[in-house]
Structure formats: C-alpha cells, structure tokens
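Following up on my earlier thread - several people asked me to post the actual chain instead of describing it. Fair enough. Here it is, all 357 residues.
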Amino acid sequence: MANPAQLDQHIDRVDGEDPQTCRTDLRTYIRGERPDIHRPNGADQDGANRDRPHPFRLSLVRSCQYRAGADRPDPDRVKVGRYDTGRAYDTGLASGSAPRSVALAEAESSAATRDEAARSAPDGPRFQLRLLDGFVFERAGRVVPMPHSLCRVVAFLGVRGRCGRAEVAGTLWPEVTEARAQASLRTVLWRLNQLEATLVTGREMLSLSDAVEVDVREFVACARDALRDGAVPLPPSRLPALSLTGELLPGWYEDWVLFERERLRQLRMHALEAVAEQLTQAKRHSEAIEAAMVAVRLEPLRESATRALISAHLAENNVVEAVRKFESFRDELTHELGVEPTPELERLVQSSLDGQG
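Reply from S.P.:
Thanks for posting it. Predicted structure:
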C-alpha cells in the first residue's frame, strides 16, 4: 500500500476542492475503504452532479495504483478535461479489488503478448537502432522520432545489454535520490512501451526487445570473432563492420558514454590489428593493408597499429613502403612525445633491409 505521505502531495493540486476533505478521503482510502468517485464532496442533493467524477479521488486511486507496483500509468483510462473517467478506475472500485487495477493487469498481459509476438515474428527484427555515428532509431527504414530522455534509456540498454533497474536508474540519474531515479525510469519505460511494439522487456532485469537490431552488438560480435584464438580471416563482407563504423554517440558526454566509447575504441583497434595480421598470413595483402591503415588513421601514434601496417608491406615485398612508414612514424613519435620506437619495431625493419642486402 502506498505511504500516505507520498500521496499527500496530490491534495493541493486539485482545483476547487477542500484540502481537509481530500485528506479525509485519503485516510479513508488507506484504511481500505473506497469512496464513491462519481459523487463529489458537496454534491447537490438532487444528484445533479452525481455523474461527474471526483477529481481528487481519481488522483488518489491513480497514485495508489502507480505506487503499489505498477511500472506505468494505466493506459486504459480516458481523460476529459481535468476529470479522468477511464473504465480502469471504475472497474477497480466497483469490484472492490486491490489498488492494482484490472485494466493495468490487462495492459501488462497485452504488453507480454506483444513481446512474444515480436520475438516470434518471422520477418526478423522490426526495429533498427544505430548508435555509431549518432543516435538513429528506425522502423522499416523510417526514422522514429524519440525525445532525448527516451533515447538515453534505449541507448544505455543497446550498449550494455541486460541490466538491472537499479543500475539503469543510478547510472542515468546519478544526481537525484534513488527513489526519484526509479520514478524517472518508470516514466520513461511507460512512454517507450506506448510505441507500436514493446521495446523494453523485463521487470527487475531490463533489456531491449528481440525485435530491436542494434549496430553496436553487430560490431562487438564481429570484433570478438576477429580476436578469437585460431580465428580465420574475416570474409570481405564483414570487414566494413570494423573499418567503416564511427564513434559511439558523438556529442554525448555523460560518464557512461565516455567509458563505453573508449571501450569500443580499444576493442576496434585490437580487432583491426588482429584482422590485419590474419589477412597478412592469408596473403590477402591489399585487405591487410587497408585494415592496418584504418587502425593507423584512428591512432597515428599507436605502435602496434604501425607494426601491423609495416608487416603487411613487408609480406608483399614492398620494403620501400615499410621503411617510409617506419621513418614517418619515428619522426612523428619523436616530435609529439619525445620518444623513440621500440627496439622490436626497429629490428623488424632492419631485418627486412638485411634480407634485401
């Protein structure tokens, strides 16, 4: 049951109603009794106002239903002006049920049905979420507009995967209390699930629906395939997933985004270097050089990326290209950081020169 102190905040928001009478109704409801929502306090004795709902009592019922365990307001209510005449509250009061309304249970059942339908859809994912090079959410190739508050939750679950409610709320709303953060999360989840299909599934553990295809997950899967021990070189069709992908959510500067952006950058660099080495060993020299050059472009002073590029040039017997790249890297490293390349890289280049001699 909801705490009366949590519900008392609604009393002063009701237009034209006596606060003391509202508090009496509040205590009545908390004791388990339910006043008649269709007879306002002070209704005419002839019943002229009998059919008009009582605004505070509707607000009270709605608050109790929301705080008694519901994750979102009841979607079945019908609002007319300042009065809420939805059948959800009528049904709950008339039947004498608990604050959790029958309509809310029906809504949750409907959401579960939509989840199952989305998972079993034969046509594959219905939604596409792109987080690399910016946030874009599409349905069948059409961009679905979404407020930033909703984008944050969708992006977080798209990157992190299955997460607990406390983790999502605490990460996205770190500056407020836990109760306020959880309330903000409930609001966002309710708004998200008003779209054409349920996008977020789960109660305590949240995740995006299987109907949502996420580019970050495809990228991570491709990178991990490349880094797996004994992996064969990636087919040409999968190389763009590593070489052409952009930065995670550019323009977003929240702490969790900065952390995930750097994590994905490191994963991409290691995967590109591994792919370059695998392609070099497979004598696919042009593709090896392309992968290594992408790594060098992303981080010009990274020696492991430069080593992968030099090795690809040497495997193709392009010693001049290898020496030119080594000298360029050494000059840039000395100018920017005041250090020299490692002896291992120097020996790699020198051994190729000795072999030519």
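Residues 11-16, 37-53, 64-108, 118-122 have pLDDT under 50 and may be disordered. That should answer part of your original question.
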